[in-house]
Design goal:
heterodimer, A: 324 residues, Rossmann fold, 2 domains, 9-stranded mixed sheet, 9 helices, B: 262 residues
Chain lengths: 324, 262
């Protein structure tokens, strides 16, 4: 096998956590196959990020160019394809993020290479790579092979792996790969920060979150009542925002807010990884869901398997009794 | 403005006990309700809104079994003007690459300004077909789109990034845009729309109609191979507080009291 190549993802001068998680897992893959871990960093004015990556990688390939001042897959893709063709890594790891999802499939076509997306594991079995990914909302795991391709691509689920503490002092190599001008067919306009809402859910010690299981907007007062009783705020997972029952600033998850309250009660939330990413660091997590197989029970400390329409009123009553 | 919308029929497994089929190739589908993939439904709505604003055709296309015609008819009941189903046993077992390749062959032969897809299929969670399709068609793409405005020969989109950040970009048409849920409010079909759609023809195309050799389709035309399915290993998981709702709630209330929350 050849090297494991990790694409560093960064925004506003900061490397994303998924980059370090990939580097840590890449180390295991490289050790199992007797190869090295290389990171590739495309950016503008990113020298310090390269040094940071060199603590984890054996080699950091850097292309520092003002054409990378912001992300554009139409600029990244041809440059990366050049770098990958030159290095011939066995596998390229890219974060399964808004950035990676926009880039990886087009890179796979350019390289005529297989791509397994959203993997939660990558292992070496004999001389073959095997990816593991989840289907059906986390209820089934799928093992994926790459057909013996010389170069394989994976996108890696954020928070699937723990980062490692290391100070390897890998080498930093400046690349001189040609960087094309931003093409007229895909032009970056701007980043827009979300407007602040009425309630800042990241500031509350108690967060009561509702999900798809709430079914009807009419059921919302049940949750508001419990939240008031516990002195908490009401938050939610994506479907509740999509339905227009709560504003976007109440959404917990990778595309919403990350919260770390003392108590997080997930009610009718299935626990897709995008949601769990935003609440897994809460001190105490309680899940109420009627599906015993819901992934949320893997993230929670305490769980009740039951119909929220019955459990929430009963819980509200018990807490009121305790208070009396 | 002619728009093609790629849709997929998926089982609703949100609260289902999902069982792996005995042959290991997939899951037991019996008893699972079938529906349009959630983000595809938002993609269809976006196409219908544009059509109402600017005229043109909305063609829905799927690669799937006979049952997926129900999804195509529902799309027509809501206002899609044409429906195409890529139907051939040769398409079976294809990965995202093979699916995108078949769609690219079919769509490449149409006159289109814009292709919309959902950003992710809820069953396999691939998040790949839209971008792969764009690259195969040789047109620009944008993913995870939650805002869209059609301009003169171009579309300005807002892409949903992590942490509530939105990335605005402008892409030239024709293009492929993958739509995130929540971008609009999908409509329901009217009774009259459903009745009319029931009588409409669906244009079915086999691999040979697309000029695809069977070696380029389905499992044979895939880049990745499915090695097997398993249930995720049960982790430590939550401590389940059991009993009737009242009993379980008493246990939880006690836990909350002990921790100082109640």
């Amino acid at each position: 096998m050849n090297d494991v190549l990790v694409l560093a993802e960064h925004l506003n001068g900061e490397l994303k956590d998924v980059t370090f998680e990939m580097l840590a897992h890449a180390r295991g893959v490289a050790d199992a196959s007797g190869t090295k871990v290389a990171a590739v960093l495309l950016g503008s004015g990113v020298g310090d990020l390269a040094e940071r990556l060199a603590q984890q990688a054996d080699e950091v390939l850097v292309r520092d160019h003002d054409g990378f001042a912001h992300y554009n897959s139409a600029v990244y893709q041809p440059v990366l394809a050049d770098v990958i063709r030159g290095r011939e890594p066995s596998v390229v790891m890219i974060g399964h993020t808004a950035f990676g999802v926009d880039l990886a499939p087009s890179l796979a076509v350019a390289l005529d290479a297989p791509l397994a997306s959203d993997v939660i594991d990558l292992a070496v079995e004999g001389s073959d790579l095997v990816g593991t990914r989840q289907t059906y909302g986390g209820k089934v795991n799928e093992r994926v092979g790459f057909g013996g391709a010389a170069i394989s691509l994976v996108t890696v689920r954020p928070a699937a792996f723990a980062p490692e503490e290391a100070s390897r002092g890998g080498s930093v190599v400046a690349l001189d790969t040609e960087v094309p001008d931003e093409p007229a067919f895909r032009r970056f306009v701007e980043y827009v920060e979300a407007a602040a809402g009425e309630v800042d859910i990241t500031k509350s010690d108690v967060v009561i979150a509702i999900g798809r299981g709430i079914k009807e907007e009419e059921n919302m007062p049940l949750i508001t009542g419990l939240a008031e009783l516990l002195g908490g705020v009401v938050a939610c997972s994506r479907p509740v925002v999509d339905a227009g029952w709560l504003p976007k600033d109440r959404q917990v998850g990778s595309s919403g807010k990350t919260v770390k309250p003392k108590l997080y009660v997930a009610i009718g939330v299935s626990g897709q990884f995008q949601h769990v990413a935003g609440m897994k660091s809460a001190e105490t997590i309680v899940a109420i869901n009627k599906d015993p197989k819901a992934p949320i029970f893997q993230a929670a400390h305490y769980g009740i398997v039951g119909d929220l329409m019955k459990v929430v009123p009963a819980l509200t009553e018990k807490i009121t009794e305790l208070r009396a | 403005m002619n728009i093609v919308v790629c849709v997929k029929q998926v089982p609703d497994t949100a609260e289902a006990d999902v069982r792996i089929a005995s042959d290991g190739s997939g899951i037991e589908m019996e008893g699972l309700p079938l529906q349009i993939n959630e983000s595809d439904n938002y993609a269809l709505e976006e196409a219908l809104l544009i059509k109402e604003d600017r005229d043109g055709e909305v063609t829905v296309i799927t690669l799937g079994p006979d049952s997926s015609e129900e999804v195509l008819r529902m799309c027509m009941a809501k206002g899609a003007t044409e429906a195409v189903r890529l139907a051939d046993p040769a398409f079976d077992g294809g990965d995202a690459w093979a699916t995108a390749n078949a769609l690219a062959k079919a769509i490449g032969g149409m006159e289109y300004d814009l292709v919309l897809t959902g950003c992710m299929a809820s069953d396999d969670g691939m998040t790949q077909v839209g971008v792969t399709l764009a690259e195969m068609l040789g047109v620009p793409h944008a993913t995870y789109v939650t805002e869209m405005e059609i301009g003169d020969g171009a579309v300005t989109v807002g892409r949903e990034l992590e942490g509530g950040l939105l990335e605005k970009l402008e892409i030239k048409l024709p293009a492929v845009v993958t739509i995130q849920t929540g971008i609009n409010e999908p409509r329901y079909a009217s009774i009259m729309g459903i009745a009319k759609a029931a009588k409409r023809d669906i244009d079915t195309k086999a691999a040979s109609d697309l000029g695809l050799d069977t070696a380029e389709a389905g499992k044979a035309g895939s880049k990745t191979t499915l090695l097997g399915l398993d249930y995720p290993p049960a982790g430590e998981g939550a401590e389940i507080l059991d009993g009737t709702p009242a009993e379980a709630s008493t246990k939880l209330a006690d836990v909350l009291k002990e921790k100082g929350f109640a």
